[in-house]
From TrEMBL:
It is found in: Cell membrane. It comes from the Bacteria. The lineage of its organism: Bacteria, Pseudomonadati, Pseudomonadota, Alphaproteobacteria, Hyphomicrobiales. NCBIfam families: PRK06161.1. This is K+/H+ antiporter subunit F. InterPro entries: MrpF/PhaF-like. Keywords: Antiport, Cell membrane, Ion transport, Membrane, Transmembrane, Transmembrane helix, Transport.
Amino acid sequence: MSVAILSWSLLAAQVMLALAMLLALYRMVFGPRAQDRILALDAIYVVALLLLIAQGIRTSSHIYFELAMLIGLLGFVGTVALAKFLMRGEVIE
């Protein structure tokens, strides 16, 4: 019974995370300012990371955890680069 509860809980979590990703995508497309769009992009990569972790737990596969780590690293670097571009107008000084 606990396996069924875990399976349904992971499915519910993935559905809610997908909904959160859609809402963040809406904010990224129709955001009023560039700062809102960057924040939405940051939220999208965090939600994608969480979706991969939930899928890794659901399938008991280690590849999803490695992909989540890669997305986290690239998402952080991308967010820092975009924030620096907004502040100074250039990424590399």
